[in-house]
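>> received
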Amino acid sequence: MVYLSRHPDGHVSTFHMLDGLPDEVVTARYANGNVSKAKHTLISGFLKGCTFYTRQEAAAIVDADRRE
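>> returned
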């Protein structure tokens, strides 16, 4: 399952953030409702088209492109 990073108002974020995650992957929240912990199985990454890349995979692609 892929969850896009979203602002609390539902707009897609341009950076990684926890506050827009659905309740099924959130394990704790601060008193103000912001996410303080997410499931340890959650993997941060990026989508390009329909392909998901972990942060490490994306970094490796950027490094390879720089070498060319």
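>> The first strand starts at residue 26 and ends at 29.
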